[in-house]
Amino acid sequence: MSSTKTLLTFDVDGTLIKSVGENANRFHKNAFSYGFKKIFGLDTTIDVVSHHGSTDKLIIRSVLEYHEIPGEKIENELENVANAMVEYATENMHDAGNGIELLPGVLELLTKLSERDDCIVTLVTGNLQPIAWAKMTQLGIKQYFNDAVRGGFGSDHEQRSVLVSIAHERATENGFKVDKRFHFGDTHNDITAAETSGAIPVGLATGIWSLDDLREVCVDKEKGLFFESLQDTDEVLKALELLS
Known about the structure:
This protein has 244 residues and is of the alpha/beta class.
């Protein structure tokens, strides 16, 4: 068993999966709407604000601000909205795969990484933890992520850079010695979060940002890795120095 590990953290939406069809990302969006309705009596959706690359709690905050909810009330009730979202997710887990599908190359890469004893693979996502794992379960890929290292989730903190650090802390707390860290993501926030928390960013043009957009926000452009997609498994593994 390898003594040192490479920690690979993956964003979810736009990185591992994409929204498709008329029910695009329905499960997650419905969870938000349920939370807003239950706690504030608001009939609304997250589409009233820009939310790409954000975290669930920041999205909750932004939607409530859009509806001019007083700041003090937002602070007092934000966690209750998140809890209501988890309640919805728990009751509707069967619907988590509706309107989403795996992006090309994801299954192949996760399969290859899971066969190695020198890698730890986990999630770092703005999704609340139960919502993220529900998606992974319904798409049939949950087993490729490390059971002991829980990663970092929107449940843990509002800021994505903190989530990347939390995943590293959880790996070390579980006795793993991590010598290299990579964070995969499709947004500006993923690139910045990786760099500010000591990981190497792996930018993917699988969301709404182009490779040039992602490279532009990368501070250490010599270290950052950028791909159009994860489709060429060997190319990605070579760039990660996991394949000669």
